[in-house]
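User: Some background: our group keeps a shared notebook of sequences we're curious about, and every so often someone picks one and asks for a predicted structure to add to the entry. Today it's my turn. The entry only has the sequence so far, pasted here. Could you supply the structure so I can complete it?
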Amino acid sequence: MTSTWKIELIPVPVTDVDRAKAFYERIGFTADHDYKVKEGLRFVQLTPPGSACSIVIGDGITEKTPGSQEIQVVVPDAEVARKEVLAAGVEASEVDVQPWGRFVYFRDPDGNSWSLQAIDTRPNG
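Assistant: Of course. Here's the predicted structure to add to the notebook entry:
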């Protein structure tokens, strides 16, 4: 394959858009857009620090069940990322060391699960 493919946007199902937006901003995501397109359709795009890929939450965005989304993010340092999540008041797992990386797990208020992975061969995340 010669073309470049980049993941741009991942829908994350939530029950309370404002609560979810506040949660993601608290852990360092930037709110790029918050726009009510029409009745029943609100589009809130949030981007993790340093990421080219964003998430979208809102009303009328996805039919997935809140709490069913699983997302993995690569970070430069699992221990540092864990401390940042904890400092934001979010419960996070201890660092889970595996042969393929070091992982930290947490959930958003709706139960959507996040995995932060630090890989030695990708030291900049």
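Suggested note for the entry: Residues 15 and 66 are 6 Å apart (CA to CA). Residues 17-26 form the longest helix (10 residues).
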